[in-house]
Amino acid sequence: MRFQKCCYVALFGVAFAGDSVCDTHYVAVGAAPEFPYTSPDTAARDIQSAMDAAEPGDVVLVLPGIYVEFHEARVTLGVDLMGAGPSDTVLVGDEDRHGGVLHGRIEAWDSRIEGFTLRSVDLVCHGTTVFDSVFENSSVKGDEASVSDCAFFDRDGPYGQRYAGHAIECWGDHLWVERCSFENNAGIHMGDGRTFTVTNSLFANCSSGVWVAAGSVQITNSLFAFNSEGVHIFEDYDAIVHSCTFFGNETAIVYDWDPPSLNNSIIWGTLFSNFHCPADSLLNSGVGPPPVTFSCIEGGYPGRGNIDLDPQFMSTSPIEPCFHLWPTSPCIDAGDGTSEYSNEPQPNGRRINMGAYGNTAMAMTSHLVDSDYDGIRDDWELSHFVNLYQDGRGDADGDGLDDYHEYYWTCDPLHRDTDRDRLLDGDEVLQYGTLPYEFDTDADGVGDGSEIRTGTDPLNPESFFGLADMRVEGDQMRLYWHVWPGLSYQVYTSLDLLHWSPVGDPIMAAHGCIESVYRVAGPATSCFWRMAQVP
Predict the structure, then answer these.
(1) How many domains does the chain fold into?
(2) 99 with 204, same domain?
């Protein structure tokens, strides 16, 4: 199977910029070699000979041809290795006496490698840029690499395991992958690195699309289809999956420790589990579920803006799939309102699409657009106002937030307090900086309105007002209150929850916690306490 319709990879012809102070050394099949190989007529017959003649800044250009029984080449520091294009320059690995399989090796330091088809060749990178190449039963390995516009397929694993080898294996600090496709292999394996970024890439029929041992991970605008695992994060410092599509995988996302966050994505047609954390990880680390927002998840998933509606892909056939959205898809213009959308074709609903094509030139536009160009999508405007007479500058509910920003913040333009936290939507955005659609912005268990009234910070989860702890010692009750320093608080008591009486004088909080001690009448007596912030 080949993803003809939805593969991101476009392989381009190679162009060279001349430089008068650098030399080009040639390699050609059947040439009459003459050192230092600076013309096609005197080209070397093998890459290593040309490399031995090159100095940093030079280029080794491998002319069109099929170079069989290729064994090994070491790319000189700072020398670029260029082919004439993947369809013209082919390196075929030499036979490995131990394994009986074809395998050659290229090792490069701070170089650029471009324009080859590699068959059974391992490319070992140390600060190397790899561009516009095809890897057939071949791989990229090393401690730091940037790989773009490449295709990897049919990579065998150890002992001849069919399609079980890693196409890219990096164990160093940084790996960047962009506009690449991976089919019939084990995708990308990232060791204990620092930064791993993959974008605009395709993973299909792989045992694992992306496997990360540890590091800061960002995966964007990528498609995972018909894999055993889409993404497997063993341990992350900050893993983000943004604007991706997962379809037909046995498991979409696996995580062993901290779960990755998912945004503006689609997970559909999963065979076993959308999200999976191995049982031993759950028992040992107590990890929670992944935070998911503005995504289409089959079977539903809690989170802001998530939907459980058929995304309406153009084709999910394993023979000829196409994961573009039909114009009637509920995933169009349904992503996070704060995400960038300007790369999507016009006219659009001024909101990013869910899925791998969100905020790209390949995004599908909806039949529900902004026909009056007021910045508000027609279907949203019609659902709230029944007409298109609004221009976005009005404030229908008088909450201080104009209609356009009600749409931008996904608020109700006819309700002054969308999240019912007892704060006006306009005040939340313009005065307090809280989220007008979120009852508790900092997720500390206390609503935004309550925090404002008690003087605590609604944007700081460590700042809240409430009972922190209580202890009974003999006939004494000790209450510990989480408060905000510099404010005064009054404790009240009641026997029936109807009539409340102050206990002592107001307490000025010098620190973030205050203690109050009271005598308990006896075990059969019910007594209640509460505290209020006072002037």
Answers:
(1) 3
(2) yes
363: which residues sit within 8 A by CB, 6+ positions away?
A: 332, 343, 344, 345, 348, 352, 353, 357
Which parts of the chain sit beneath pLDDT 50? 2, 4-20, 97-100, 159-160, 162-163, 282-284
What pLDDT is recorded for position 369? 65
Residue 530 has what pLDDT? Answer: 82
In a domain, 301, yes or no: no
Give the pairing of strands 501-502 and 488-494: antiparallel
Residues 401 and 477 in one domain: no
Q: Distance from CA of residue 450 to its chain's centroid?
A: 34
- Residue pair 167/157 in contact by the 8 Å Cβ criterion: no
Q: Is 315 helix (H, G, I), strand (E, B) or coil?
A: strand
Q: Say if residue 426 is in the same domain as residue 516.
A: no
Determine the Cα–Cα distance for residues 434 and 46; give it in Å rounded to an integer: 65
500 within a domain of the structure (yes/no): yes
- Are 451 and 459 in contact by the 8 Å Cβ rule? The answer is no
Query: Rounded to an integer, what distance in angstroms lies between the CA atom of residue 119 and that of residue 93?
Result: 6
* Full DSSP string of 489-500: EEEEEESSSSS-
Round to whole Å and give the CA distance between 173 and 143.
6
Tell me how long the chain is: 535
Residue 503 lies in a domain: yes
| Residue-range definition of the domain harbouring residue 471 | 466-534
Same domain for 491 and 431: no
Say if residue 400 is in the same domain as residue 489.
no
**Distance between CA 29 and CA 84 in Å, rounded?**
13
Do residues 449 and 393 share a domain? yes
The answer for residues whose C-beta is within 8 angstroms of residue 451's C-beta and 6 or more apart is 442, 457, 458, 463, 464, 465
| pTM of the full structure | 0.69
Q: What is the predicted pLDDT for the residue at 285?
A: 54
Do both 256 and 392 map to the same domain?
no
Residues 81 and 196 in one domain: yes
Cross-strand partners of 242: 220, 263
Using CB atoms within 10 Å of the CB of residue 401, give its burial: 0 to 12 exposed, 13 to 18 middle, 19+ buried: buried
For residue 367, being part of any structural domain is answered with: no
Separation between Cα atoms, residue 224 and residue 321, nearest integer Å: 12
Nearest to 170 by CA among 134, 206, 215, 208: 215
Give pLDDT, residue 160: 45
Per-residue pLDDT tens over the stretch 18-40: 444 689 999 999 889 999 999 99
Name the token pair of 161: 């395991």
CATH code of the domain containing 219: 2.160.20.10
Mention every residue, 6+ apart, whose C-beta is less than 8 A from residue 109.
Answer: 75, 76, 77, 78, 126, 127, 128
Final residue of a structural domain among 218, 252, 273 = 273
Please give the C-alpha separations between residue 514 and each of 354, 360, 461, 464, in angstroms, as whole numbers: 48, 54, 18, 13
Boundary-marking domain end, from 224, 254, 273:
273
Express each pLDDT in 124-165 by its tens digit. 999 999 999 999 999 999 888 999 999 999 886 554 454 457
